[in-house]
């Protein structure tokens, strides 16, 4: 198994290299002159030229790419001029926000989707099943930026139940002591109930918005694979053993139908990272998503490239973990 | 001798929706008025073509499928009157071995875990007792404790079916339904498994309901036979009598179709014309009249009654109506 893991990681190298090259080219194709963005539009042309030279923007593309590769090999992700920090330090300070949002969305999605999918499948064509199907269609088809704005209008503007959708915690409350960087975890660990309440309030809407499509897809997947498993002979055998209906579903049905679902959950992490770009912008969430948006708007190449690279590597690793989990769930899976 | 299990006028009807939006509804009579009695320690075989309702009958007897009407009397008790919980407990006395040894075991579970589950579900034995019981039952079906560590996909078809049998027998039931237990196995393995079943029956004094479409197997293993066609019982009788002197034209045709090992032996095959009609659209009167070589005018309009023709033989055919 360690051999398998190493092999899989080695296999990630070509795709990561491809991603580096493609994002490099794509960022250069984007409209906007970075030198002009750095200096400001009113700057003297000589000054703009000087900046262009200093940052190497006047070099041929392949030289720039080569320099970038060399820099990556040194472990340097570059400098984000629009924040004035290195990309690595920006990432370290912003990643926990995105991680918290993504984990919360995944948790919400699974808490709803798994039971809903199971009940929908075990009571096929019942009311619950119909509701689950309608919700799945809504979840996959509603654009999250629209849903986000709608939820803000309702819960903040109209009802006033939730605080202004800005940031991870209300401005007049101190963030919890930094332990993990996740506000919910930190405020629990340090017993800071004021911070916990405020950060939960801020997290709720963006996490629900972001969870919608994952919730819909996982519900559909669990329902479908559960329906398939329910028709299997060993389910009938379990019933013949004298197990109760519940025991049959949970002991034999659920785990067997989790295997295909797991694949989808792994893929959904990628979708969540993508969705975070939109959601973080709407909710002014200080994470990686809004960082990428800011970087694109200021034509700041280094952070765009670095965040794409990191997301790709993360995505690859998550899917590797999913593959290893197959082996835990299914004894027939062997790694070599 | 008192029967251990008796079923009376058992029916299982499915409402089949046909047409656009299922507006037209049609009744499929998977089981239509089946009655039979099984004596303790004997093997009652059910034969019939695909779609005749044999498997439905086997599952309905254990209420794995709920019958539409009729009664099932097991050890003097009508099990149709039992609630979910008592029915669940009754599984310790009534068990079933399924046809497909490949699909009927949970692929994620080792043999040991599969065999332990019925014990854990119904009893609160200690871990040692459970291990001991599993080892014992493995030995009974001709496997070793080493097999218990394996997963179903690591076993051959014959070994898997032995696990299926062990799984059914570990609760020490009195009555076991075998739903085509050997049809998925090679002929050489079939013989081994059949011998095992006979051996177990005499050792543990079990009562079997044996479902099969293979008449040679049925002749070999059964004491009593019931012949089914399109959800109806055509004829029942002691195995020897039924094979040597079939009364119903359908039974006659089936028996004439058994392959003879001796090529020189003269035989007359009764070849039935046509296909088995769709159960959605079962013929009126006697369901067999469309293919019966001895059909009479009343066969297409009047359903034959279930008649006793001799001490142990029952038949549904107008030829024997008085």
TrEMBL record, chain A:
The chain crosses the membrane at residues 12-30, 101-122, 134-156, 203-222, 258-284, 304-329. This is Peptide/nickel transport system permease protein. Belongs to the binding-protein-dependent transport system permease family. It is a multi-pass membrane protein. The lineage of its organism: Bacteria, Bacillati, Bacillota, Bacilli, Bacillales. Coiled coil: none annotated. One of its GO terms (cellular component) is plasma membrane. GO terms for molecular function: dipeptide transmembrane transporter activity. It is found in: Cell membrane.
UniProtKB/TrEMBL annotation, chain B:
Keywords: ATP-binding, Nucleotide-binding, Transport. InterPro entries: AAA+_ATPase, ABC_transp_ATP-bind, ABC_transporter-like_ATP-bd, ABC_transporter-like_CS, Oligopep_ABC_C, P-loop_NTPase. Belongs to the ABC transporter superfamily. Residues 5-255 form the ABC transporter domain. SMART domains: AAA. GO terms for molecular function: ATP binding; ATP hydrolysis activity. Pfam families: ABC_tran, oligo_HPY. CDD domains: ABC_NikE_OppD_transporters (cd03257). Coiled coil: none annotated. One of its GO terms (biological process) is peptide transport. NCBIfam families: oligo_HPY, PRK11308.1. Transmembrane segments: none annotated. This is Peptide/nickel transport system ATP-binding protein.
